[in-house]
Each structure stands twice: as C-alpha cells, then as structure tokens.
Design brief:
CATH topology: Rossmann fold
Radius of gyration: 17 Å
Low-confidence stretches: none
Strand order of the largest sheet: 1-2-4-3-5-6-7-8
Mean pLDDT: 97
CATH superfamily: Alpha/Beta hydrolase fold, catalytic domain
Structural class: alpha/beta
C-alpha cells in the first residue's frame, strides 16, 4: 500500500527548497554528510570556543542554513555551539526532499557529526516547525543526546496532511512509527522544552500541549508564548523566546 507521506503531491506542498550559491561567514565550518549514493546534505557549524554544549538545529520548511548566519550569536550567548542542518535539495545539498528522507537523514547526520568529533560531549537537538519532526526522531532513538527543544512542531500527522490540501481518515501503524510526533515523543526521555506561539494559526498550540502531555521526559517544560504565531516566535515580548530557553538550559544537570 502506498503512503500519502511518500506521494509527490504531499511532499511538493510540504517542502519549499531554494538554492544558496553564496559562501558562509568566514569562521564557519561547512560540513557535508553523505545520506545516499551521490547525495550529500549540507550543515554549517558556527565554532564557539566558550560553548558548553552543541546545538544541532533543524530548521523550518521554508528556510535554509544561511538564514541563521545572523542569528547564531544569540544562541551562542546561551552557551551553544550551533550547527544548522539543511534538507535534501535545500541550499548546497543534493537530492530532492521528502518527509521520510528528512527523518532518516537526521540519524545519518547526527551519527556523522558525533563520530567525527563535530559535536561537544553535551548535545541539545532543536527543531523548528517541520524540523521538530527530525529532532523528535533523533531524541526518541539516541540516548546520548542531552536535551531537546521543540519550537512550533506538529503532533498529529493527519492535520499535517490536511494542510497540504489532501485528506486521510487514519494512519497505519507503520506511518505512525515514523511520522506521528505525538506517539514518538513518548520515547523521548531527555530533558525537553516545547515552545509554541499562542497565536499560531498554522499549527495549533493544542498540538504543543499534546506533545508535552505525551512526552516521556521526566523534566519537561511547555512554554506558550503570548502575542506571537508560527513565524515570529523570536518577537515575543520581553525577550521571552530566549528567556524560555535560558531558564530551561539553566535547569539542566
């Protein structure tokens, strides 16, 4: 049986890749991870000598690695050495994106970075919007990950399909095992922060509440930010976006 998640219509309405021919900042490290034969995915590491932990970041479906070139310093101020990952077909990466291969590639990326000394001993995996699925995928499987941050992520895959203009009545156990964040997050046991805009009309804050309820982490925090939606989280009043992250990271052992 063919899955809607593998259909061309679903994935072409989910991913919005764009190329990036420009070089990165002078101090960054460009990393290419082979995820399939003749297909490499690009990651950009921003070295931070004083960092206490690595932040492995998976961005949203309309972004590319270089969108974070002017933002990484704000994460560095939290003690993070940030590495931002693209998807197939994005930026300087080869291939074509799909939800399935973005999740499968996340594991290949993490193992390559870890096994080749590109990550510090403590690793926080963070995913924004669609990237939350990659973060949950990793944190549900790799117990050596220290912490997880989910920003504006989906929970149930059925509304995700409906937002692509398609309709399904149910998902199969096989589809849930890979694509259902609210089920997979039960296997996330590391400290977890879920951030979501109260005015998010693309992915309801109810999905953040469901992910928080289902999460297997003993230390888990739900931060619903007032006055912001899906794509303006950093604009929350009183700097609450980074303040929420600071409080969470400060609470970690």
């Amino acid at each position: 049986m063919n899955s809607v998640f593998d259909s061309r219509q679903f994935n072409e309405n989910l991913f919005f890749p764009r190329q990036d021919p420009l070089p990165g900042p002078p101090d960054c490290e460009e990393i290419y991870v082979e995820v399939a034969e003749n297909v490499r995915v690009h990651c950009r590491k921003h070295p931070t000598p004083e960092a206490r932990f690595s932040l492995l970041f998976f961005h949203g479906n309309g972004e590319i690695v270089s969108d974070y070139d002017d933002i990484f310093q704000a994460f560095a101020n939290l003690g993070a050495e940030m590495t931002v990952c693209d998807y197939r077909g994005y930026g300087k990466s080869g291939g074509s994106p799909s939800l399935r291969n973005s999740l499968e590639d996340a594991g290949a990326i993490y193992k390559y970075l870890r096994d080749n000394g590109k990550l510090l001993s403590k690793v926080c995996v963070m995913g924004r919007s669609l990237g939350a699925a990659s973060a949950i995928e990793l944190c549900s499987k790799y117990r050596d990950i220290s912490s997880c941050v989910i920003e504006s992520g989906y929970a149930d895959p059925i509304p995700l399909v409906e937002r692509r203009g398609l309709r399904i009545d149910r998902t199969t156990p096989e589809e849930d095992a890979l694509f259902n964040n609210s089920m997979k997050i039960k296997d996330v046991t590391c400290p977890l922060l879920i951030m979501h805009g109260e005015d998010d009309f693309l992915i309801s804050s109810k999905e953040a509440e469901l992910n928080h309820l289902q999460a297997g982490s003993k230390l888990k925090t739900l931060a619903l930010l007032e006055g912001v939606g899906h794509n303006d989280m950093m604009m929350a009043e009183n700097g609450e976006y980074f303040a929420s992250m600071h409080r969470f990271l400060k609470s970690l052992p």
